[in-house]
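Cont'd.
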Amino acid sequence: MYDIYPSRRQAESRLLPRLDPVIHGEWTPDCPLSRHQAEQFDRDGYLVLEDVFSPEEMVCLQKEAGAMLGDPASLAPDTIITEPGGTEIRSIFEIHVQNRAMARLAADERLAGVARFLLGDEVYLHQSRLNYKPGFAGKEFFWHSDFETWHVEDGMPRMRALSMSVLLSENTQHNGPLMLIPGSHRHYLTCVGETPEDHYKSSLKKQEYGVPDEQRLTELAHELGIVAPLGKPGTMIIFDCNVMHGSNGNITPFPRANVFLVYNALSNRLQAPFGVDTPRPDFIATREPIPIAPVSGSLIEELT
Ligand code: 6CS
Ligand code: FE
């Protein structure tokens, strides 16, 4: 089959045009985002929403995240990714399956309703994770486009997915906050190097394939700049599946904990991967979508 977003196939990296809209829904006054917010997301490839959750809801989510981090034996062992060369927890995958509060969060109208509008379709969770950047020991995430990985390794056909990061701890300029290149989502930067088998076993600790080359990154960063949205717990960062992003390590004593929920359009469900023979396991990339019915009201009501 002809691949409109080929990557990891050629010796040189290329900058290809994006062939999909950024916002798939039609804006109307009753949309969950203002016209200005929608325009910002379209232009920059990300949007920051503050005070999305009440302090009580944040306490609940922090407690639930702490419970998972504090009792890894209660989790499916495969879903726990440790820091490269260390034993500290870097990510826990499939949190919406392993924790009721995270499932409720993922279905919340404030997230799923926005995802439905931006993706112009029913949505399902492609991936969920808790990214924990422990104090002193948290390592970086090198620059990448999520879509590049999801297309090549998981078989996501089109750019019709997005991530929502819910900040559980304060993200400061010091503790390795998410960095993005605004506007980079408008191009598809192809990567070089063939994907090794079972790549995810190393890439989730330290990604070495599916990362753009330094020359291209230098050009992009010079042209478009780099932003690092900061925020207190309860802030939410929504970003397009193809925006270039990454984060530095955390040598401060202050851990950084963020929930990541990836929504994909139901019509964009995974096919055979475009660059590897065997798709990654389901706990990283769901192959059997369950459409989300958005739930309104406080997170806490149902959980207590
Ligand atoms: O593997 C994933 O699905 C995500 N994680 C990493 C480290 N890179 C690509 C994508 O963001
Ligand atoms: Fe990413």
